[in-house]
């Protein structure tokens, strides 16, 4: 556990970067610090490994006051990942990962074995191990950065915008893999981002800071979206927070409608005969949905090029947000639902999803949700 006890930081010149922060990052969980640029996130993070010293207050790792620990030893026990990875350009990938183990005096064999294991674990092809950082893409460099931080198996990880410099698709992949890794590793993680979507996706707990280094609210993501503590937090979590909060609710059993389907290679006449209303769902041999077609517009047998790609597919029983999105995005206005194996199970309309949402909300009214830990 990392505990901030009334921690403040004033920089020379008078800027208060962090103002009397009281916060606990529980062991084995991801605590995300989020807020606009300049609100003191990086300063907060760097005070944990004493790259920056607090002006007042203290920071504890379990029962140890960090101010009393030897700085170098403290840092070796904390993994640190930054934007652009911060790799040593003249060391190979595998040598970068082995940095801390070597400082700890591990022999060459053990260090290399551990480094290769970790590169595999973070999803980097081992063919890259002997290359130099500049020969890797941004996303690959970030993976190496994460592997390096994990090398000596520190219980604590500090991560400062680790995924911000890569494109959105790679960022999503890195986030998903990071969550899978953490599910195995159970590190105590303090993670900084300015992106509320990233905070909500990754955080077990999200701490929202405002400029001036004041903690505005700390809560789990679902609570934060449903009960922002003030106007600042409400603005920061965004206008579509009601919709995004649906991501935390699993869909109850929905009234699924059967839907005629057709396979690739069917003729326009066959498709017209099967269609209900101008749209027809195409599935593969295993009944995995492929896309919709408009039979009246077909001039040749159905192939993959003719498919309308607009609609999303959701898991029946998955998050309500995905189910509603499937209904809203479907050109046929019927959302396509699949089971855990990806097999088509039926369609649902948006109004049916909304009815289900109303029903899931009703029992909650009046019952206490998880308590917030609002600041002060
Ligand atoms: P964030 O990570 O949220 O963008 P920072 O912790 O980097 O915020 O900065 C918080 C505030 O402290 C900002 O106003 C910033 O300009 C100021 N600041 C950061 N580092 C220094 C420094 N070394 N000297 C003076 N002011 C600083």
List keywords for this structure.
376 residues, alpha/beta, Rossmann fold, 6-stranded mixed sheet, 4-stranded antiparallel sheet, 14 helices, 16 strands, 33% helix, globular
Number of strands: 16
Mean pLDDT score: 91
Q: List the uncertain runs.
A: 364-372
CATH architecture of the largest domain: 3-Layer(aba) Sandwich
Describe the structure.
This protein has 376 residues and is of the alpha/beta class. The chain folds into two domains: 2-240, 3-Layer(aba) Sandwich (Rossmann fold); 261-359, CBS-domain, CATH 3.10.580. Helices cover 33% and strands 22% of the residues. The strands form four sheets. The protein has a six-stranded mixed beta sheet, with helices on both faces. Helix 5 crosses helix 6 and helix 13 packs antiparallel against helix 14. Adenosine-5'-diphosphate is lined by residues 11, 13, 15, 17, 35, 37-43.
């Amino acid at each position: 556990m990392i505990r901030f006890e009334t921690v403040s930081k004033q920089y020379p010149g008078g800027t208060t970067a962090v103002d009397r922060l009281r916060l606990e990052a529980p062991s084995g969980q991801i605590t995300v610090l989020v807020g606009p640029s300049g609100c003191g996130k990086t300063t907060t993070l760097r005070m944990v490994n004493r790259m920056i010293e607090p002006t007042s207050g203290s920071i504890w790792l379990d029962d140890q006051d960090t101010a009393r620990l030897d700085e170098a030893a403290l840092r070796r026990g904390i993994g640190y990942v930054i934007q652009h990875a911060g790799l040593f350009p003249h060391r190979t990938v595998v040598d970068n990962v082995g940095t801390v183990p070597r400082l700890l005096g591990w022999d060459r064999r053990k260090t290399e074995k551990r480094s290769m294991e970790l590169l595999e674990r973070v999803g980097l092809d081992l063919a890259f191990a002997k290359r130099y950082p500049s020969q890797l893409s941004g996303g690959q460099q970030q993976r190496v950065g994460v592997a390096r931080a994990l090398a000596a198996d520190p219980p604590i990880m500090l991560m400062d915008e680790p995924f911000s410099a890569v494109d959105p698709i790679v960022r999503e992949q890195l986030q998903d893999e990071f969550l899978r890794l953490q599910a195995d590793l159970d590190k105590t993680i303090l993670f900084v981002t300015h992106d509320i979507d990233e905070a909500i996706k990754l955080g077990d707990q999200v701490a929202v800071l405002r400029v001036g280094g004041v903690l505005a609210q700390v809560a789990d993501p679902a609570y934060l979206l449903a009960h922002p503590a003030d106007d600042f937090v409400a603005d920061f979590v965004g206008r579509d927070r009601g919709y995004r909060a649906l991501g935390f609710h699993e869909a109850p059993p929905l009234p699924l409608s059967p839907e005629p389907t057709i396979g690739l290679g069917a003729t326009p006449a066959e498709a017209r005969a099967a269609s209900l209303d101008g749209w027809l769902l195409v599935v593969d041999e295993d009944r995995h949905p492929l896309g919709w077609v408009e039979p009246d517009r077909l001039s040749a047998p159905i192939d993959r090029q003719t498919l309308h790609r607009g609609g999303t597919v959701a898991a029946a029983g998955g998050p309500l947000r995905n189910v509603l999105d499937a209904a809203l995005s479907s050109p046929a206005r019927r959302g396509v639902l699949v089971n855990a194996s990806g097999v088509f199970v039926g369609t649902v309309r948006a109004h049916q999803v909304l009815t289900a949402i109303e029903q899931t909300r009703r029992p909650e009214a009046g019952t206490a949700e998880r308590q917030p830990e609002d600041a002060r």
